[in-house]
Amino acid sequence: MRFLKKLFRVTSYILIGLLIVFLVLLQFIFKVSTDVDVKEELVNITLTHHQFNNHEYRKIVTFQKLDTTIPTLVFVHGSPGSMLDFKNYFKDTVLTKKANLIAYERVGYGIDNIGDIQTIKNEVEMLNSITDSLPISKTILVGYSYGGSIALASKKKYRKIVLLAPAVYSEVEPMFWFLNIYKWRSTRWLMPKILQGAAKEKIQHQDELRKFQENWNENSSDIYVVHGDKDWIVPLANSEYIQQQFNSTQFELVTLKGAGHGLVWEQFEEVKSELIKVIEE
After folding, report:
1. How far apart are CA 217 and CA 26, in angstroms?
2. What is the pTM assigned to this prediction?
3. Are residues 21 and 79 in the same domain?
4. Does residue 64 sit in the same domain as residue 24?
5. pLDDT tens digits in sequence order for the chain, 281 residues long
6. How far from each other are the two terminal CA atoms of the chain, in whole angstroms?
7. 45 and 135 both lie in a single domain
8. Does residue 71 have a cis bond before it (omega within 30 degrees)?
9. Domain check: are 79 and 120 in the same one?
10. Domain count of the chain?
C-alpha cells in the first residue's frame, strides 16, 4: 500500500512536470511574431501597419507598387493563425512573378489585439476595405480554414475565390476537448492568449456560420476549393456541403488524397500548383 502511494505521488509529480513543460512550449509556439520576426522571415516583402474600426493590423505585400497587369492574391488566415502561415508562398519566386501577393493579420491575432475576436460580418468588412483599392477583376481571394468562411461571405465579384480546407458548415464543426480549458475560468489562464482567442472564435464559430451557411450560393464569384480527404480538423464534408449549393460552372472541388488540415504547409507544392492554375486561367 505504501509503495502504491509513493508510486502515485511520483507519477503525479511527473505528470505535473510534463504539463508545465507543455504549457511553456505552447507559449513559444503560439507567440505573435513581432515586426522584426516578420522581416527576418520574409526579407523581400513590405510590412505596413493599418487601422480598421479602431483596431490596428499588419499587412505584408510582395511589391513596392502594385503591378496591375498581373493578378493579385489576397490571403486570409485561419484560427489560430497568422499572415506568416503563407510565408512559403511569399518566398516562392515562381508564384511572385505571376501575381502580386498580399496577406494581412486578422483582428484578434495581432500584437495589440490578441483575443479581440470579431464576427464574420466584421471580418468581411475588414477584408473588403483591403480589396477596395485593388482592381477587382484581377483579384483572387485565398481563404484558409476559418479564413475560407470570411472569403466566401464577401459579396464582391472577384476574379475567383480559392478556398483551402474551408470551415463553412456548422453541423460538421468538431468541438475538441481542450476547449474546456478555455471554458473553465480557473484554467483559462494556462492557455497562451492567442489560443484563448482561437478557442473563443471556435466556440462562437458554429453560431456565426449558421447566419451564412444556407446562403453561400449568393456569392457570385467563381469558387475553387482545395481540401484534403484526411482532414479531421475541418472535415471534407464542409466543401462537399457548399458544392451542393453551386452549379458546376461556378464551383470546382479538388480533393488532395491523404492530405490533412495542414495542407498549406505539408502539400505546399500541390497547393501552389493549384494557385498557379487559377492565376493562369
Report:
1. 39
2. 0.83
3. no
4. no
5. 565 666 556 666 565 555 545 444 545 445 667 889 889 999 889 999 999 988 889 999 999 999 999 999 999 998 877 899 999 999 999 999 999 999 999 887 766 655 566 789 999 999 999 999 999 999 999 999 999 999 999 999 999 999 999 999 988 676 555 555 555 566 655 665 655 555 556 666 678 889 999 999 999 999 999 999 999 989 999 999 999 999 999 999 999 999 999 999 999 999 999 999 999 98
6. 73
7. yes
8. no
9. yes
10. 2
